[in-house]
Structures are given as C-alpha cells and as structure tokens.
Amino acid sequence: MFRLQDKTGVAATQPTRPAMITSLRAIVETDRRRIKQSSYNKKYRITPTSIQKDVRDMIDGVHAGGGNGAKGRSTRNRAPILPEGFDQPASATEMAKMLKTLERKMFKHAEDLEFELAASVRDQITAFKSTQWGMSGER
Questions:
Q1: H or E element: which one contains 14?
Q2: Could you give phi then psi for residue 13, rounded to 5 degrees?
Q3: How many Å is the Cα radius of gyration of the chain?
Q4: Mind listing the pLDDT tens digit for each residue in 24-56?
Q5: Burial 101-133, CB ≥16 within 10 A → b, else e
Q6: pLDDT tens digit sequence for 50-82
C-alpha cells in the first residue's frame, strides 16, 4: 500500500500495482524535468514558443529522395509511369487535369492527417513527371 497525495492535499490509500508504480515514476520524472527546464529558461531568459508549420511545409519535407530516379539513372527515356487509376493522358490538358486531381487528393490526405497516403500520392506524381518530362519533381 502507498499514500498518494493529490494537488488539493487529499491523501488516498490504494493497493500498489507495478503499472501504477511505473506511471507514478514517469510522472515524477516528468515533473522533475519540467522544473529543471523552467529554471534553465528563467536563468537564461528564454521564452518557450511552439513551432508554426503549415501542413504543406510538412509534406514538402517528407521526401528527400534522389532527383533522377533509381540509383541516379536518368528517367527521361523510360515509358511514363502512370499513377494508380489513370490512363495515359491524350493531351496536355488531360495531363494537367490528372496532375491537379492527384494534387487535390494528396492535400486532402494531408489535411486528414493521412501522411503516408499523401506521401504515396506525391511519389506517384513525382514518378509520372520524371518519366513524362524528365523532371525530378523537386524544387
């Protein structure tokens, strides 16, 4: 048995369980670190702030792969890789519509916090652009 005193000063006696003891240790350690960080911040006059990042910034940073396709080989002379569910576009207008549709799909996945799916669609767009126009798709 142990006594646990909450913030209001009320003590409660409960049977000890290993998971409960582990949780309490984690809470104590978190509080210790928080106090240590606060004193450091005060000492050096640091005001903590949250990062401000748009979903678009997070998507752009996910893929840092090579620019010319697999193992550095040029993809210019390869047959176009078509994204899933699309036929070869017959015109530049159809191609632009297809890419716009894929971009909307990618941003919708990102907005829904489905980052793996968004990255997959982004990779499809990049692969198509690289085989169609010899572009890497990177900025």
A1: strand 11-14
A2: -105, 125
A3: 26
A4: 899 999 999 999 999 999 999 999 888 877 776
A5: ebeebbbebbeeeeeeebbebbbbbbbbbbbbe
A6: 887 777 666 655 554 444 444 444 444 455 566
